[in-house]
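Hi U.,

Before I forget, here's the chain from the pilot set. I'm dumping it here mostly so it's searchable later in email.
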Amino acid sequence: MRATTTLIALALLTSAAAAADYDVGALRIEQPWARATPKGAQVGGAYMTVRNRGTVPDKLLACVSVDVSARCEIHTMAEKDGVATMRPLPEGLEIKPGETVELKPGSFHVMFVNLKTPLERGKPVKGVLRFEKAGTVNIEFQVEPIGAPAPAAHGGGNH
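Structure:
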């Protein structure tokens, strides 16, 4: 019984750490993840950290596709006078040389629009991202529980 409890605890602690990292051009995409959604939800959010290890800026231009929604977009979220507003970034999200941009709840994020099915914990979401210079990359977002906090970062500065 004690061994089973230990294994369950370890699985819960390492689920976010199991997210793969991706290299595309001079960029490194770390810990892509999404939050589970309740049944009937029309949208979902996904997050990651993008590091530019190169000498020129690049832009996350688009979420080309994901397998769980009709479309996906790059969004920003801001709060002004106590009101949160969210909007797409049609020009993309710039990642300057040597900088790190964190897509996280309440900030930059990938928005899955018109969900075909709820996002379920433990069922990864496959997608394709497109960068201006680095090109496209197939990616898999690990799905964490509803309301989950961002996984622990690998370290380094955030933008």
